[in-house]
């Protein structure tokens, strides 16, 4: 791990630990770490500069933690630029990282212009992480969305299927297909019953 990656990781963890963090510490272990792991795997398989996607992964949701979910891709890119400049990171690489962060939101697909493979790797890794945080998806459905158990199960399965279907790389689909199959086996296909 480079010194800059280590400093950024520490920065994100500290922001998650703050009482002002919008989601507490859980996103650090349950979301950021899986996203980072997936970008590293995909980055190596797809032969990109792994440090770029790794830094983008650490910083992709920092806007949510610090300022809230609304437009967190924009606030996150601004926070990332400020932090990376403090660490004297090269501006051309900062621009690549900002592009990844600005375009990582799958729900904003029509607004996005993912012009680089690095940006698409981050989108895939973000979607792949959903399969590592199924309990968090249930928590969101049950606690934050106030769904009943049946509706929560249906909502989680729909999200997992959407996440799988929007993956861009065959490498991503091969990586996660066993987890999708396991979720279907555990929670079943919704057949309207």
CATH topology: Hypothetical protein af1432
Average pLDDT score = 90
- As a percent range, the share of strand residues is under 5%
Number of domains: 1
How far is it from the N-terminal to the C-terminal residue, by CA? 49 Å
Let me know the CATH homologous superfamily: Hypothetical protein af1432
CATH class descriptor: Mainly Alpha
Describe the protein.
With 193 residues, the chain is mainly α. It has a single domain, classed as Hypothetical protein af1432 (Orthogonal Bundle), CATH 1.10.3210. The protein has 10 helices and no strands. Helix 8 crosses helix 9. The model has no long low-confidence stretch (mean pLDDT 90).
How are the SSEs placed, and which strands pair?
Layout: H1 3-17, H2 26-45, H3 50-59, H4 62-67, H5 72-86, H6 91-102, H7 117-129, H8 134-144, H9 149-165, H10 170-187
Helix pairs in contact: 1-3, 2-3, 2-7, 3-6, 3-7, 5-6, 6-7, 8-9, 9-10
Features:
globular; mainly alpha; 193 residues; Hypothetical protein af1432
Summarize the structure.
The chain is 71% helix and 0% strand.
């Amino acid at each position: 791990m480079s010194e800059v990656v280590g400093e950024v990781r520490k920065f994100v963890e500290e922001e998650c630990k703050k009482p002002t963090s919008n989601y507490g510490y859980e996103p650090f272990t349950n979301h950021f770490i899986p996203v980072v792991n997936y970008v590293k795997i995909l980055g190596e398989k797809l032969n990109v500069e792994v440090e770029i996607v790794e830094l983008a992964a650490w910083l992709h949701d920092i806007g949510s933690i610090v300022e809230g979910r609304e437009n967190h891709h924009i606030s996150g890119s601004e926070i990332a630029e400020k932090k990376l400049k403090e660490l004297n990171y090269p501006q051309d690489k900062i621009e690549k990282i900002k592009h990844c962060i600005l375009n990582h939101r799958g729900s904003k697909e029509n607004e996005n212009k993912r012009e680089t493979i690095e940006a698409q790797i981050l989108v895939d890794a973000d979607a792949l992480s959903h399969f590592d945080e199924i309990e968090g998806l249930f928590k969101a459905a049950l606690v934050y969305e106030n769904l009943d158990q049946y509706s929560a199960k249906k909502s989680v399965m729909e999200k997992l299927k959407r996440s799988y279907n929007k993956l861009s790389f065959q490498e991503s689909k091969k990586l996660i297909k066993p987890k999708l199959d396991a979720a279907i086996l555990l929670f079943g296909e919704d057949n309207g019953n």
